[in-house]
Amino acid sequence: MKQIADIHCPQCGAPASFDIVEQRYLCDYCGGKVGIAEAQRQKQGYRTVQAGKIQSSMAQYKLYSASCTGCAATVVFEENEALASCAFCGRNLVRKEYLRSKNMPESVIPFSLTAEEAADRMRDWCDQNKSKPEAKHLLPLIGELKGFYLPYELVRGPVHMRVGRMDGTRSYDCEGFLDGEFVNRSKQLDNLLLDGMEPFNKDGMVEFDFAYVAGQRVKVPDVDEKTLVGRAEEEAAASYTPAVRRTLETRAVEIDANLDSAIRLPVLLPVYYLCKGDLMAAVNGQTGKVSVRAEKDSHYYFLPWWLKAIVSTVVLCGGLFAALRLFGMELGTSLILTGAMALVFIIITLCLFSDTTRNSFAVESGREIYTSGGKSFRRERGKLVLSDELLERKAAEPVFMASVDGQQRPVQMRFTTPTRVLRMVALSLGMLFLPVILALLINGFDFSRLELGGSAVWFCIFVP
User: Fold this and answer.
1) Cβ partners under 8 Å of residue 156, min gap 6
2) 258: Cβ–Cβ under 8 A, 6 or more apart, which residues?
3) pLDDT tens digits, residue range 200-223?
4) How crowded is residue 249: how many other Cβ atoms within 10 Å of its Cβ?
5) What is the mean pLDDT of residues 118-126?
6) Of the candidates 375, 372, 371, which has an alpha carbon nearest to the alpha carbon of residue 384?
7) Which of 20-29, 130-139, 416-425 has the highest mean predicted lDDT (pLDDT)?
8) How many CB atoms neighbour CB 298 within 10 A?
9) 223 — phi, psi (to 5°)?
10) What is the per-residue pLDDT across 244-300, written as a single tens digit (0 to 9) for each?
11) Residue partners of 111: CB distance under 8 A and separation at least 6
């Protein structure tokens, strides 16, 4: 069966790969080309056909939905299943017949783990994290782990970005490609908790059929379009942050991502979920990866970069002054030397801390997310075994674009070229030894008459 998320060549039917420079899909077999608009129409046609199949197959199943009186979550389930309370907040559920098939996505990744296997994965995590209070509290609750198909949106396609350094005024055009990013479409669930148990293997995605959800619960999507687009663009920017930082040679980068040209497909993903008060945990129903949210908030304090530099300088000067006094130096001399070195320290620390993404004072709180690591499981001869393959989020290397001769062309961005480094070193050495160079010119390059001690003040100024 063809991969659902793939774009296919209209000439030979083979999968087409995206060319970031040309901004279109190219067939590796016959050279056929598929534009972005045509690719989006391909998937719209698939969705129309699949919606018709879902409508016809729905008649075979008697489905009900339950809406939570507290968090407003809606869960779809089979007629003979009893649901008394919401699995996401514990409030009462209002049961009614389910008729809105338009809320059922056209694709699904089926459960690979049984409820017992998911419980075993959670139990293993608890055994390996006995020192954490969450593990102690989770252990007796593992039996309450429930399987859900949660609503996501698969985003695959071009990413248009505007990127820049926070310490600069210039921004750059950057192009990328997401090979399949799943974006959560639920309001009630902790997005970081769900991110912790990702990624999923999109190769396991199949066309939706109600047979897949038989005996399972399906949560209905309830995130509005604006919030969904914002989440997708944030996750796209996060995927490209490491690569952009490497290229721009700083951690303090800004990325504005746009996904208007990408293909978006609603999909159901298999998750075992548990929520009891402040305790939340999830198990990936495809790979077995465990994600647990901390029960208590952690507080993080952020200082402006310039304040960090001042505080660091004060600490360094205090340590230097104490050391000088400890070794018997006089008070006045210690103060003079410490004051002279303060100039060196402040310049160094200002340069050091300017490369930061935090430029204002802030106190933030959040819950830590604990996971079982990058290992995943697969089914082999009916048994669940640890997979050798490490699943990772896939994002193509970014391509930076610039106007060359009036046209947008790919360019290689480099801030630290060998020529620039050599020039900076030469200029630095020239300024550092300027008094020595002038003295040699005056005395006819008589090194024996040089007195380097006279350049001490100059060295203190120019070394930083």
Assistant:
1) 5, 178, 179, 180, 181, 262, 263, 265
2) 159, 160, 161, 233
3) 988 888 888 777 776 678 888 888
4) 13
5) 94
6) 375
7) 130-139
8) 10
9) -95, 130
10) 998 988 888 899 999 999 988 899 999 999 988 889 999 999 999 999 999 988 777
11) 147, 216, 270, 285, 286
Say how far apart CA 292 and CA 282 lie, in whole Å: 6
* Distance separating alpha carbons of residues 55 and 72, to the nearest angstrom: 25
pTM: 0.76
Q: What is the pLDDT of residue 2?
A: 47
Alpha carbon 185 to its chain centroid, in Å, reads 17
Residue 393 CB neighbour total at 10 angstroms: 15
Q: How far apart are CA 321 and CA 142, in angstroms?
A: 58
Report the pLDDT value the prediction gives residue 1, as an integer from 0 to 100.
38
Report d(CA 141, CA 332) in Å as an integer.
67
DSSP secondary structure of 227-289: HHHHHHHHHHHHHHHHHHHHHHTSS-EEEEEE-TTSEEEEEEEEEEEEEETTEEEEEETTT--
- Are 86 and 70 in contact by the 8 Å Cβ rule? The answer is yes
**pLDDT tens digits for range 394-411:** 778 899 998 888 888 899
Amino acid at residue number 24: R
Distance between start and end Cα atoms, the chain: 64
Under DSSP, is residue 345 helix (H, G, I), strand (E, B) or coil? helix
Determine if the peptide bond prior to 199 is cis (ω within 30°).
Answer: yes
For 4-61, give the DSSP string. Answer: TT-EE-TTT--EEEEETTTTEEEETTT--EE-HHHHHHHHHHHHHHHHHHHHHHGGG-
Measuring CA to CA, which residue among 238, 274, 298 is closest to residue 125? 274
Separation of alpha carbons 163 and 261, rounded Å: 18
Mean pLDDT of the chain: 83
Stronger pLDDT, 145 or 13, i.e. the higher one = 145
CB 269 within 8 A of CB 200: yes
Give the list of residues 6+ apart from residue 276 with CB closer than 8 angstroms, or none: 90, 137, 141, 144
Instruction: Tell me the HSE value of 62 on the side-chain side, using a 13 A CA sphere.
Output: 4
Task: Give 361: exposed, middle or buried? Use CB within 10 Å, 0-12, 13-18, 19+.
Answer: exposed
Can you say how many angstroms the Cα of residue 363 is from the centroid of all Cα atoms in its chain? 22
- Contact (CB, 8 A) for 7 and 42: yes
DSSP one-letter string for 77-136: EETT----B-TTT--BEEEEE---GGGS-SEE----S-HHHHHHHHHHHHHHTTTSHHHH
